[in-house]
Amino acid sequence: MRLSLFQPDMAPNVGAAIRTAACFGVPLDIIEPCGFPLTAKDIKRVAMDYQAITPITRYSSWEKFSVAPPTQQGRTILLTTKGAQSLWDFTFEPEDIILMGRESAGVPQNVHDSASARVYIPMASKARSLNVVVSASITLAEASRQGAIHLAK
Hints:
The protein is an alpha/beta fold. It has six helices and seven strands; from the N terminus they run βαβαβααβββαβα. The chain has helices spanning 11-24, 40-47, 62-66, 69-73, 109-114, 132-146, and strands at residues 2-6, 28-31, 56-59, 76-79, 85-86, 97-100, 117-120.
């Protein structure tokens, strides 16, 4: 299991994603360009000490990410409010890549179309969406509950 961020807009969310990935024991991918400067110093600052316990891989573009070895080994599961299947009805596999879109715009149609599955988190009818890292956390927790992620006690 991996967590991947598509062109994140907000540095604090990258920091929260690094911490989330570390706590669930999964690697994190950052697909650039980001909506802010992302240097090694910035990552260290937003990641605190969690950077040391989770592998972070940066990709300069969607095209580079889409041909990387992890994407050839597992399914790309896009979390989207336009998903076709509820998170609660989806079965995760250990090699899945959980892809999160931009905070401001999600993902473009070509990325949407390339996903193996498009999953949504059910929520109250008047709500638009959850924070991207909150959504990632809920999804990783469900994948863990299903046994696709093995966490130590």
